[in-house]
Amino acid sequence: MRVIHVVPDINKEAAGPSYSVPKLCESLICAGLDVQLTVLDNSGTPSHLPYLKTFPLGFGPRRLGFSPKMRRWLIQEARSGEVDIIHNHSLWMMPNVYPGNAVRDSRCCLVVSPRGTLSMRALGINALQKKIFWHVLQAPALRAAACFHATAESEYEDIRRLGFRQPVCILPNGIDVPPLEETPNSGCRQLLFLGRVHPIKGIDVLLRAWQAVEDRFLDWELHIAGPDNGGYLAEMQALAAKLRLERVVFHGPLFGEEKLRAYRAASLFVLPTHSENFGMTVAEALAAGTPAIVTKGAPWEGLDKQGAGWWIDIGVDSLSVCLEQALATPPAHLAEMGRAGREWMLRDYSWERIGAQLSVVYRWLLEGGETPPWVRLD
Q1: Secondary structure of residue 100 in the 3-state scheme
Q2: Do the beta carbons of residue 354 and residue 172 sit within 8 Å?
Q3: Interaxial angle between packed helices 203-213 and 316-327, expressed in degrees from 0 to 180 and rounded to the nearest 10
Q4: Burial 149-184 (b: 16+ CB within 10 A, else e)
């Protein structure tokens, strides 16, 4: 089976798809599929991936990612009869429109992973531009999809809310689980936020909740790490100063081993997000053995069931109450919760498992037969 995956960009190491899409491709290759990943050739695009094919940007606004060469190539490949599946990731750029155009008048099946772009919160960002793009380009391209891929039940609901009735496979992202290592005690215990410093992540909520509890937990520090998004980091630093917060440390973006060290050094991870289709950083923290507090803007209800953390309502009050409990939890119990989270990731979120399940979906689309249990037809 030959499969082409399409995503606009994989050079932003802090963004989830830059990790999850290549790893998904690699898991499918391990499952025996012939996979190619197609992206725009931006600065920083990794060149060492043997399955990667890049295309230059054409004329037009950079944020839209026009690439006539990519468009022509996808049409040519789809109509050659040699490609079985084109799998598009994300929306709102021209590379996310081209696959829908390419599969028309071909036997090739289109699979679409929205990657969080259809949530109400996400649709409200640059709403007017998205409304125009939706009606003119994006919605017609999505109507060509044979199947959608959602990483959580909430994303399945977003797809249905917008009127799409195609089958939806619900499969989470996978995660690499590193060896479990004890980190030496370096003084203050750390509460870590790691991710884009963006309004959707709820960092302002976190700072206000920290203000409510910090005086009672003098052995804890709040660490905020991640790349700035449009100057929002400066706003959050100004808010921390205005609230007269103590023991708050702002870091820049962390990648690779440096990021893993941050997860391991933290006693607790927190994601106070307003909207998240998956929340890759939650899986990364759990895989490193760190328990997590996550708001219901992200689909991590399993935290409570697995004894790996807390899943709470969005807002300052609910986060403050949770922090009161979590920061008072004995270190040994937090470490036990972290180990439970790591075992959960090993059991249910291995890339090998996700790749095998998605390959079953592809074969079902092409050959029919019994519907896989992780595919929703309703």
Answers
A1: helix
A2: yes
A3: 50
A4: bbbbebbbebbeeeebebbbbbbbbbbebeeeeebe
Q: What per-residue confidence (pLDDT) applies to 14?
A: 44
For residues 25 and 35, the answer to whether their CB atoms sit within 8 Å is yes
2: nearest Cα among 131, 108, 135: 108
DSSP for 278-312 reads S-HHHHHHHHTT--EEEETTSS-THHHHTTSEEEE
Which pLDDT band holds residue 255 (cuts at 50, 70, 90)?
A: confident
Beta-ladder partners of 3? 35, 85
Sorted by sequence, the CB contacts under 8 Å of residue 259 that are 6+ apart come out as 194, 225, 284
pLDDT band of 185, cuts 50, 70, 90: low
Spatial distance between the Cα atoms of 210 and 221, rounded to a whole number of angstroms? 10
The residue-averaged pLDDT of 195-207 equals 95
Q: What is the dihedral of CA 67, 72, 76, 78, to 10 degrees?
A: 50
**322 contacts 309 by C-beta, under 8 angstroms:** no
Question: CB under 8 Å to 139, separation ≥6 — which residues?
Answer: none
Q: Report yes or no: 272 and 203 within 8 Å, Cβ to Cβ.
A: yes
Spatial CA neighbour of 40 closest among 15, 19, 68: 68
Phi, psi of 132 (to 5 degrees): -65, -50
Strand order in the sheet with 220-225: 248-251, 220-225, 189-194, 268-271, 292-295, 309-312
Q: What is the mean pLDDT of residues 74-94?
A: 96
